[in-house]
Amino acid sequence: MPTPPPCLDLGAQCRSLPVTLRIGALSEGQESLDHEATWLLGHTEQIDFSNLRPEDGDLLVDAVLHLRCRHLKAEKGRDRCAAHGFARPAAAPESRVRQLRRLGNDRFGLVEGLQWVEQRFESPMAHPHALPVLIGDNPCATAPCRTADHVRGAACCRDLQVEILCPTDGPLEALVRARQSPYLCKIKRTGDRSLEAEMISACGYLADAVTCSLHGRRRADGRPAKPDLCSDWPLKGEGLHPGCAFGPVAAKDVSR
Fold first, then answer.
1. Mean pLDDT over residues 41-58, rounded?
2. Could you give the 3-state DSSP secondary structure of residue 171?
3. What mean pLDDT do residues 207-228 have?
4. Which pLDDT score, from 0 to 100, does residue 252 have?
5. Is 88 part of any domain?
6. Is residue 3 part of a domain?
């Protein structure tokens, strides 16, 4: 068990955590980063994003991870820290305005030219090899895939990897490592400035259980609006979620 964070009392850090996320190096080019940033900023179920910016050769975005600390316990109207023993009356539910990505009338928010913009896209024309398909047989539609919190369906669209800027000194690393698993897990240090982790936070572009609302839509310059890393079927048996339609044991996982 990681060392508990050095908190002095119960506070906002018990239920959410402000961080800065690295999207990628500016050397990757605007086109690639537009796709990567659109993908990352789409995962709004448990993340709020702000201040997308280039800085020191990277594209960064500030974010608030709405994930509670594993040490926070709710007991008969009181909050208690199981690590330090702090206690107080239970805090009011967190007030949060969900950041929308589907704005209605074929309008969407996404990253264009390394900036967050709102644009209208024409209704899509389906492409037979993009994932998920809008017409025809979609192997993801009935797949029993699931994320580590045992929620079934659209696992690829609910799971993501994040890079959190985090120096080796200071309390941030302990606060990150104290988040509730599996919603933030597999945390590892990748250098003296960042941590990598897996997080569960569903994509806001999902129109239903498995359908991406950006599918088939194109930007004004002809590039797909949909992030390119979401547009190919996964390789057979490589790094797949349990129950994935492309996994070798998917057929045996239908009861879960």
1. 97
2. coil
3. 87
4. 45
5. no
6. no
